[in-house]
Amino acid sequence: MTQRPTLALTVGDPVGIGPEITVRTLVDTGESAPARGVAVADPAVLRRAAAVCGLDVEVRALRSWDLPEPRSGVIDCYDIEALGEAELPWGEVDRRAGEAAVRAIEVATGAAMDQQVSGIVTGPVNKEAIWAAGSTHLGHTEMLGALTGVTRQNTMFVVRGKKIFFATRHVSLRRALDQITEEQQVASIDEALTALRVFGHDAPRLAVAAINPHGGENGAFGDEEIRHLDPAVKQVRARGADVTGPVPADSVFHRLLEGNYDGVLSQYHDQGHIAAKTFDFDGTISVTVGLPILRTSVDHGTAFDIAGKGVANPGTMRSAFLHAAEFAHFADRIRAEYGD
Fold first, then answer.
1. What's the CA gap between 328 and 334, in Å, rounded?
2. Average pLDDT over the chain, rounded to whole?
3. What is the pLDDT at residue 264?
């Protein structure tokens, strides 16, 4: 066994771009990578992806996490035995593809829970396909929560080492504003500070983004900062935490990049997404915090329109893999903080 951490890479939907970006990532990073990557899929899915990408590699099927020695020009694949040799049409919602995607998540998560791998890196799933397969979960995060016995998880974006958190996520902007209260802000700040500590910031510095233009201008442009954000920041600061804010959103992310903070708590989905993806779209990856295992992920979809053409950019998958290799060193912290 190599001393490098081992990471399980699920390809997501096998008829989306996930298989292509997975094989490209494993080939591009190669034996010099800081972690050993093992794809979790049907080997035939990876062989087809390698072919459309024009890659001359061998796909070695495995049925145990007792891994053989790595070899140049070889991609290791833990065989989930879901599709066999069946070739499904590229870029189409298919129940069988959804079943394979769910099976891969189950296998990889089980391996991480049993500490056979140091973490998982997930490719994009198609929600319609996993629902057609019988899944009752909204997506990856909810499925992982059920598999690990966790009822609350959060997203941490990482872009070039900077962290962004979200007080609200997949709701309308109007509903997001309704969800923001002082109590909710305190909980979100505490969760962000905990995640920063778990992922290596022993004395974390967090900024809380404002909601309204210019931070509300003392109530002239909105009073959420006065009623909810400022009292929450003061409450947490009174405990000795290094929390700043609310900081106007048009400057807080610039100050994050300048090194003034280790992380920013954004107030709604697009506030944080736009900042991260404008700065480095392909380098922005997602980490699910609150799970007792390490999980990084691409932050894009299955791109059915280009699947099977060999043109998908593997940048985000590569970044998710390399960040997971870095964060694997915190696996014990993750397990201790978020486990039973």
1. 9
2. 93
3. 98
Domain 157-274 falls in which CATH fold? Isopropylmalate Dehydrogenase (3.40.718)
DSSP notation for 144-190: HHHHHT-S--EEEEEETTEEEEESS-SS-HHHHHHH--HHHHHHHHH
Q: Do domains 6-153+290-338 and 157-274 have the same CATH topology?
A: yes
Give the tens place of pLDDT for each residue, 207-265: 999 999 888 678 878 888 888 999 999 999 999 999 999 999 999 999 999 999 999 99
pLDDT one-digit tens code per residue, 146-155: 999 998 888 9
Left (φ > 0), alpha (ψ -120 to 50) or beta: where does 115 sit? left
Residues, the chain, total?
A: 340
Domain ranges of the chain: 6-153+290-338, 157-274
Cα separation of 46 and 44, whole Å?
5
* Across 97-124, average pLDDT: 96
Closest CA to 314 of 8, 13, 95, 23: 23
Q: Measured between alpha carbons, how far is 298 from 76 in angstroms, rounded to an integer? A: 20
Please provide the DSSP assignment of 184-213 as one string. Answer: HHHHHHHHHHHHHHHTT-SS-EEEEEPSSG
Q: How far apart are CA 270 and CA 229, in angstroms?
A: 18
pLDDT at 4 over 80: yes
Helix axes 182-198, 331-338, angle to 10 degrees: 150
Yes or no: domain 6-153+290-338 corresponds to CATH 3.40.718.10? yes
Whether residue 57 has pLDDT greater than 90: yes
pTM for this one? 0.91
332 SS3 class: helix
